Amino acid sequence: MPKATTAGPLSTPAVSPRLLATALGVVTLMLLLTYLVAFDQGAVSQSGMFLHELMHDGRHLLGVPCH
Ligand SMILES: [Zn+2]
Asked: What is the DSSP string of 3-37?
């Protein structure tokens, strides 16, 4: 009779959950920053044209339509 073994994970994940959470957090922050720099125009941030003027050269560098 075969000896019973304890059940363990069938396979280990290729990416650790902590690394995955960190990567998703970084991607989310980058998307938020991209939105604020390129598309917000004060609509969500309620900053008027402050962010637009602050990021103006970066907007041109990225090729975002400006004026
Ligand atoms: Zn411009």
From this structure: PP-----SS--SS-HHHHHHHHHHHHHHHHHHHHH
- Select from 63, 61, 67 the least CA-distant residue to 49: 67
CA of 56 to the centre of ligand 1 (A): 6
State pTM to two decimals.
Answer: 0.60
Ion ligand 1, residues whose Cβ is below 5 A away: 66-67
If 0-12 CB within 10 Å is exposed, 13-18 middle and 19+ buried, where does residue 30 land?
exposed
| Residue-wise pLDDT tens digits, 6-33 | 776 678 778 899 999 999 999 999 999 8
In the reported structure, the alpha carbon of residue 26 is separated from the centroid of ligand 1 by a whole-number distance in angstroms of 28
Ligand 1 centroid–CA 30 distance in Å is: 22
